[in-house]
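Tutorial handout. Part one gives the primary structure; part two gives the three-dimensional structure as tokens.
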Amino acid sequence: MAGGTRNRGLRCALRTYVSREAPLTATSEARGLREENRTLYRVINLVASSIELGPMLQGIVDLATEATDCHACFIYLLETGLLTMRAASPVYANAVGMVQMRLDEGLTGWVARHKAPEFIREGAMADPRMKFFPVLEEERFQSMVAVPIISRAGETIGVIVLHTEAPREFTEDTLKLLVHIASLVSGAIENAQLYDQQRRRVDALTSLSGLAQEVATADEAGEIGRAVTDGTRRLLGAQVCQLYRLDRDGGGLTLLSSSPNATPEPEALSATKLLLAAFDGGASRPPARTLWPELEVSDLLVTPLVSGGERLGLLCAGAPARRPFTGEDTEMARAIAHLAAIAIKRAELIEGLTNANIVKDLFEALAAGASTFAATKAAEVRCDLARPFLMLCAEPAGGREQGSGAWRAAAEALGRDVAELAGRTAVEAGPGPVRAVLALGTRGAERIEEVARACRELGRRHGAAIGLSELHASASECARAYRQALDAAMIGRALLGPGGAIGYAEVGAYRYLVHIAAENAPHDRMRAAVDRLIEYDARRRTSLLDTLERYLAERRSVIESARELFIHPNTLRQRLGRIEELTGLRLDEDDLLSLELAIKLARLHGRPAEAVARHHGA
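Part two.
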């Protein structure tokens, strides 16, 4: 019904056009009019019988070529600001889709821009408005006619062009015929374009739905990336597609997947700067060759991956040579990027929860001394305990307690930083102690000091006492390494004040005392002496206990002890005398080893800090 109505409307238009022409008396003129009417009726039948844009345009080319006996006929359509050849005489079929020009180029562009027909009677190539395309062999053309195709809204949607070779020239009658052909086909072209656009949308939605199902069944980010890049390349007809994951700190990008697989990864520095700029709209469509200088790509489409306001990465696609991306391609890329962002976030959340449970089981096994089971769990999070590794344990320092809000926040931040200390880590970040396995690989022995230095800084920054085990390289030793880290953290909490780190190799005699509970510690003469010094220091704000501890550590050397305490030797002697007076000890005669151990036990059990708090209300 719709086709019949459009057919009758076009025939009415044709009869109106014929009735306006002056009566023709000459036989040749009458024959020409009949031929012209027959051509126009054939055009009407063609546009009424097909909604497919490609076949309709080719049919118009064939009719115009036959009616005008021209050498070549071309139809250009205006797409994304460019006039692109969409139909041509068979001899130039290879130029369809390949020849393009701007509106300010060539006679075709002039006609489209001015919305007025134009023809060159002879010497077409001499006209300054001509744009030469070698594939069209335009040096052979003698005469040229170009007529705009105008939409219902009065805008140019395309141009019909005729060429002829010498010695034949086009006449005004040819121009008039072409004008009427363009008038008859303009509405049909608009309808066909609309139909084609809607069909492409349906096809795109169908393909997008299939890709969404494929992405939904992927279990991990790498598998999602492969589905997304392959699907994007297929749906956009792209030459290359790559998916990048944004680093946690937002300062860099990591290539997650590429299609084809053999596509080289872009040079790191330039690619990161270029793609990160795309997040802020500063490089939404930069030169494609910047990323892939070795590939024949003509356009670059960069689409951010965002989920719940969080930036996750970028989807990049490169178009084949001479085929720029369209607005529809941009919409499709946005839809795919949205799918990818949700899928990647979901996969990472699931992986995070799974890993958290594995890590929890790992540390529970370590605490129970089940080394074999712990090593199995470590392997599930890619920590190889058959290679050099360290155990780490961190307790709250500075008077904070586990489970408090301040420690929960500090433990979470500390856990993130600890995860960066080694290529493979298993971290449990609170609400109790922060516990971690740091797999250091073959260079473990070389990295111990580097890791210890970083831990000292992290402990001070986050208010944590971090304990590090000795270096181990056997899964059978993992439970012992865990106990070492736990002991070092407990000792560090007593010794490190507001925070820091200490290795098990540094704790000295404390390792023998750390498991003696306060209620089980000896209550003897040495403990009484130490408690009197603690009370005196707390009341008078002195440091006699520190002086005594240093003196014992330096094996009763006055000179060395004074140097370490930054005081004069006579000052040290005066302090030692005061200590003997307060405690009743004889430092030249008593069991100084027992005295030193009593001091260390007092520190482990926090008695100096408790005394200070008692006397000063801290």
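Part three, for discussion. Residues 172-216 form the longest helix (45 residues). Residues 1-26 have pLDDT under 50 and may be disordered.
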